[in-house]
Fold this protein.
Amino acid sequence: MYSVNYHRAASVADAAKLLKSGDAKLVSGGMTLIPAMKTRLAAPSDLVDLARIKELQGIKVSGKTVTIGAGTTHYDVSRDEKLRKVCPALSDLASMIGDPAVRHRGTIGGSVANNDPAADYPAALLALGATIVTNKREVAADKFFKGLFETALKDGEIITAVTFTAPAKAAYQKFRNPASRYAIVGVFVAKGKDGVRVAVTGAGDDGVFRSKEIEAALAKRFEAAALDGIKVPAGALMTDIHASADYRANLIAVMAKRAVAAANA
């Protein structure tokens, strides 16, 4: 590590002011930033800690409207009873992230802001048609995720919450790396009043994306059998040491079928 100035923000407004200090970076759980700093992949001059800001924490459910504070941990998302009643798919997704240490420290806001191409939450928010709320504006998930580790966040913006309307049916299935537990392929399916939305993580060359082929098939019949013989193009999928693009294309169809079956169970 190296010398860095540490600031504990008392509020979102305080964090926004502190963020103007040098090359400052926000940190909450620190699941990505701290390891990056240890390996010198990141070298901010200042760290602005959001972990003690109460206004960023907690889950609110009003009818079908769900609002989750950006500082809410994966563990709390997985265990909240009100959320599990209206959207068990998101609770189940959170329970599959990393290990207990990661789930108790990592936050939904940090994951969404980082937009790792194999992270789970981006697929959920994209499939749920969620809105990402910052200290300055609201951004639809369809316009928020821009590419690998890239989002629509601008300088000085801080994610404060995510909000969405709970779907009638939803589920998430992922084929995980046995070591990191990141998704080699993860598929979130959701059926709501606006139709069927399907988002894929872990596979895209440009990060999380919606699968139009699977959405079209499920819009006609929301059953796993509707995806029999479905072909997902491999051209825009990644090949790495874990899986080829063709293998991932097949996995997307398999995980989508499992997710639909789980959503209908």
